[in-house]
Amino acid sequence: MVLSELYWDHHIPLPKLGPLQSRLVTAFVALVCFINSYDGDFVFDDSEAIINNKDLNPDTPLSNIWKNDFWGSNLSSNSSHKSYRPLTVLTFRINYLLAGGLHPIGFHMLNVALHCVISVLMIDVFAILIGGLVHDGRGAKLSLSPKASFLAALFFASHPVHTESVSRVGRRDSAGCLCPALEFLSVGGDKKFSVLWIFGSILLCAVAMLCKEQGITVLIGGLVRSGLFMRLALLFLGGSFLLYARWRIMGTGPPSFTEVDNPASFAENVILRIVNYNYYYSLNAWLLLCPWWLCFDWSMGCVPLIKSATDWRIFWPLLLWCCLMGLVYQALCSQDSNKRRTLTFGLVLLVIPFLPASNLFFRVGFVIAERVLYLSSAGYCLILAYAVGFCSCHWKKHKVSATLTLLCVNVARSAQRSQQWRSEQSLFASALSVCPLNAKVHYNVGKNLADRGNQSAAVKYYREAVRLHPKYVHAMNNLGNILKERNELKEAEVLLSAAVNIQPDFAAAWMNLGIVQNSLKKFDKAEQSYWNAIKFRKKYPDCYYNLGRLYADLNRSIDALNAWRNATMLKPDHSLAWNNMVILLDNTGNLAQAELIGKEALKILPKDHTIMFSLANVLGKQEKYKESEGFFLNALKINPNVASCHGNLAVLYHRWGKLDLAKRHYELSLRLDPSAPGTKENYNMLKRKLELRQRTVG
After folding, report:
1. What is the 8-class DSSP label of residue 47?
2. Number of alpha carbons in the 13 Å side-chain half-sphere of residue 7
3. DSSP string covering 589-643
4. Second label for 404, Cα 20 to 30 Å away, from 17, 328, 414, 623?
5. What is the per-residue pLDDT across 204-260, written as a single tens digit (0 to 9) for each?
6. Exposure string (b/e) for 111-127, b if CB count within 10 Å is 16 or more?
7. Rounded to whole angstroms, how far apart are CA atoms 496 and 17?
8. How far is 283 from 159, CA to CA, in rounded Å?
9. Contact by Cβ (8 Å): 564, 544
């Protein structure tokens, strides 16, 4: 075969570039699309995968990444997501080590670089799938479809559906795609059958599966080689072994998901499930065709279920299957062997990587997830490149402008979407127009507003989230918290009570309900709520702290001290619990014990000015003036603008007889807070004393 035999490649409206130039252009396009996210924040569930994941910390044993899931939870735990991706987590850990901490820029830059590398590799992958590679007699391999493979790689590099995989830190999809690309290049470039190459495919498959579950689809690369029976037998045995090993690692059970994650999978009627699954497939196909409506989350009512044969949306899965059947017919029955080859591999690459997300083999935890289309989009880009070549053969006019327009639109949309992924504020706000029925979108917008201090605006979105999904306990809990802060205690109690009735093991809601009931003077109910929270979350230092406050309000000093001691045992740096112990012991006259507790706390929190302040007060009452002065002054070094600290230091100097210093700190206290209780009276008393001293001296 010679290059001229692929007639439609010559009609592709792109210049014929050399191998190096085409790779540089492809990498540049990929870079332009996503580089504006390089200095973005950690967003959405990056907080769980990165910020709160202890497996990234160098102090955590490296062996833990092989025992835990992607989110850092033990795989044997009932709450585990069962997403076993240790190699992806290892890349996060390397990022952490190189950057010296959780700095997003390093994570984002590696993601963008990885996408650029994969996009460049896809040139040769597409070349192999379209027409293969031939030797030029000097050992070099030449593509039979240089323009088509280049165009398909440009489509892949710039496709907006990749934004979640590239601009989000997650990385699992792009990392999992690297191995399939390498496998195609190493196994698919030579058509001669080799058992060694088959085992290489299985090894790359194992590596890919340690990045993400879809890595099993690496094995499709072996289909481009000869030796069909032996090849398929070895691939089947290898794939089966890897699937069995993964099943064992997962604890021989799939993860558990709720109805809001994937409502179609919970439909009782099998026909309804099938119809809605197919509707989901059509929406995924639409995201590939027209990636304008992109959203970070498609659950919680974003895609209402089809429940009736009269629902007009049934048309879309029917249209999808008509298109797929048309492509399959052309792939099987066309007289053009190259067309059959290109469409066959395009369909295989489109469909097979999507199968793990299709609900066919097990329930997945999402309705639509743009990230799972990362590898499938390569099949779509291959078919699209063929379509451009086919149309260019028959319609000469405007083919250059049409192709360039399509590429420019993709680049512009990718850059725009990448910009939206830079911060949670822009990401969540962008979803409101795409999924206005999604309660989680409103919840996240509200949470972001609350985190930025705009609680009044947050209330509106939390209320809408609860309206859209009346059993959304996290929205109820957060709304209840804001209402509690605004002293709207009755409504807060109703919301939090509803949340714990819906989800009885919701420990945080029990604790917040206890705080509200305590404020409403419903002390018995508050105590019971706190103990319910502790029952469902054994290690809950904040709940013990709030329980101690309740006991202090009830003058149950011993119980309060025990609760706060439990809080500090569970969380040694719990400043409020330590400080409250010192204050309570001070107020009850146990000054020696208060001193011991205060000094114990400062060993753990040596720069905590609030504990220094409380301990200084205790020492002052024991007439240990010099030691007390030291703690007051240290506290003021850390935070010099605390009026009460200046005021109490002035009282110390007043008692100590250092009246000039006392006068100076009274004045500093009154300058910071003119209405400070007792300070003005003490200052006036000191001034009279100083005047009397001057008259006496005079």
Report:
1. I
2. 7
3. T-HHHHHHHHHHHHHH-TT-HHHHHHHHHHHHHTT-HHHHHHHHHHHHHH-TT-H
4. 328
5. 777 777 777 766 666 665 555 544 555 556 555 665 666 666 666 666 566 677 788
6. bbbbbbebbbbbbbbbb
7. 64
8. 16
9. yes
Query: Given the structure tokens 């002035």, which residue do they identify?
Result: 650
CB of 231 closer than 8 Å to CB of 222? yes
Angle (nearest 5°) at CA 428 between 168 and 477: 110
Is 666 within 8 Å of 683 (Cβ atoms)? yes
Best CA proximity match to 172, nearest among 281, 49, 284 = 49
pLDDT in tens, 272-312: 999 999 999 999 999 999 999 999 989 888 899 999 989 99
H or E element at residue 135: strand 133-135
Q: In DSSP terms, which residues pair with 654 in a beta bridge? A: none
Query: What per-residue string of b and e applies to 287-305 under the rule 16 or more CB within 10 Å gives b?
Result: bbeebeebbbbbbbbbbeb
Sorted by sequence, the CB contacts under 8 Å of residue 165 that are 6+ apart come out as 111, 115, 171, 173, 174, 370, 371, 374
pTM here is 0.84
Cα→Cα distances 691→337, 659, 686, 696, Å: 110, 11, 9, 9
Residue 400 neighbours by CB under 8 Å, 6+ apart = 13
Cβ pair 300, 438 in contact under 8 A? yes
User: What is the torsional sign of CA 101, 102, 105, 110?
Assistant: positive
How many other C-beta atoms are found inside a 10 Å radius of the C-beta of residue 249? 17
* Concatenated DSSP letters of 64-110: GGGTB-TTS-BTTSTT------HHHHHHHHHHHHHHTS--HHHHHHH
In this model, does residue 133 exceed pLDDT 70?
no
Put residue 244 in one of left, alpha, beta given phi > 0 → left and psi -120 to 50 → alpha. Answer: alpha
Contact 537, 543 (CB under 8 A): yes
Half-sphere exposure of residue 609, counting CA atoms within 13 Å on the CB side? 15
Q: How far, in Å, CA of 556 to CA of 412, rounded? A: 65
